[in-house]
Amino acid sequence: MTAAQAGDEWHTLFERAPCGLVTTLANGTIRHANETFCAWLGVPAEALVGSKRLQDLLTVGSKIFHQTHWMPLLQMQGSVAEVQIDFVHRDGHALPMLVNAAVRTTQDGVYHDLALFVVVDRRKYERELLAARRRAEELLDRERVIQTQLAEVLREQERQAQARAVLAEQLIGIVSHDLRTPLGVVLLGAAALEAVGLAPAQARVVKRIASATSRANRLITDLLDFTQARLGGGLRVSSAALDLHMLVAECIEELRLVWEGRMIQQVRRGEGLVCADADRLTQVVTNLATNALTYGTASHPITITSEISSEHLTIAVHNHGPPIPPSLMPHLFEPLRRGEQQVKLGSRSVGLGLYIVQEIARAHAGQVSVESDAELGTRFVFTAARGEPGPLADEV
Question: Structure pTM?
Fold first, then answer.
């Protein structure tokens, strides 16, 4: 390439560069302006070079900015970068440009070299970006409002559910309490019929009536205890001195009448009286034993152990049979839950037995636990404070 060709190439590059290239004198008079810059303003080069100053091409606001900020900064620093200035197009509309400028000193004088970039597309992008951000913020605000409304709806539903649950428990308590009176009348009537000496067939019918009524009475007792535990802050107990071993033995005799043919044995450990609620401990023995008889293997006995130590009383009920599934263990003492075996057998139990045992343990400052293994069987252990035996009942 010859020097002439190289010069032509550099001239073409200058004139048609993808940015405006302008050289001015120190006072702003335009000395060179390439075709790109002239095309952007819609003004030919000969109308600018030598006859126009750079500041003559600016809007009023940009002229003030040029005079008070841009030029002093350029003279002080020797260069400025990415300063936006609005130029006036030939048809009168403002054309924003970013300007990079540098001071060049030669033997001929001081010149200002400028590279200019139209920022119309950039402004459009920024506006679209801001609009997109506003839309995103609006959507986020709407989502927050929806989430707040949804949370309020869920809270209201929870409040309503709690209110319904309380109402249901209150109704259970009221209905159960009102049913005890007619059931008591039925039991008294059955006892009176048994006393007059009936024919064998009639006696069997009366016995079934008494048995069914007693079972219904036990269910009502469980429901009343459940309501009291849930709404009354726990079960009330009336503690008095009692013989734990004798109480368990009496419970076993009653169980043998109901569960004819099943083997129930007692193990006694320790001696002495304890201070506890006899009726509540009877419930513990009955509920745990009924649970063991329901789930235990009929060919093996269930064992009820009554134990007295210096500080505690313990009632443990053991049975052989399939172990309790691990998935069920965390929920054993929850109310209104029945085991699979009870469901299969069509049991009339409402699933409150173990829950009530747990509440009785809490009322006696004790606890109830369970361990279940395929080889060793299942063992429930009720433990409570022994208390100080005394001759009088003590309401706690």
Answer: 0.49
Instruction: Dump pLDDT digits (tens) for 187-212.
Output: 677 777 777 777 777 777 777 777 67
Say if residue 347's pLDDT is above 90. no
Residue 342 has pLDDT above 80, yes or no: no
Distance CA 325, CA 345 (A): 18
Sorted by sequence, the CB contacts under 8 Å of residue 52 that are 6+ apart come out as 29, 30
Q: Which residues, listed in sequence order, are joined to residue 87 by a DSSP beta bridge?
A: 58, 95
Integer Cα distance of 78 and 105 in angstroms:
10
pLDDT digit string (tens) for 74-87? 999 999 998 899 99
| Buried/exposed 146-164: b ≥16 CB within 10 Å, e otherwise | eeeeeeeeeeeeeeeeeee
Q: Which residues contact 324 (CB under 8 A, 6 or more apart)?
A: 332, 370, 372, 378
d(CA 279, CA 190): 24
At 171 the pLDDT is 55
Query: Of 5-9, 255-259, 320-324, where does mean pLDDT reach its minimum?
Result: 5-9
Cα distance between the two ends of the chain = 113
> Across the strands, what pairs with 111?
25, 104
286's tokens = 């009955």
Which CATH superfamily groups domain 237-395?
A: Histidine kinase-like ATPase, C-terminal domain (3.30.565.10)
Neighbour tally for 210: CB within 10 Å = 17
The CATH number of domain 130-230 is 1.10.287: yes
Would you list the domain boundaries of the chain? 3-118, 130-230, 237-395
Compute the distance between CA of residue 304 and CA of residue 296 in angstroms, rounded to an integer.
13
- The CATH architecture annotation of domain 3-118 reads 2-Layer Sandwich (3.30)
pLDDT given at position 393: 40
- Using DSSP's 3-state secondary structure scheme, residue 112 falls into strand
On the question of pLDDT at 252 being above 50, the answer is yes
Is the torsion defined by CA of 122, 127, 129, 130 positive or negative?
positive
Around Cβ 388, how many Cβ atoms within 10 Å? 11
Structure tokens at 223: 């429901």
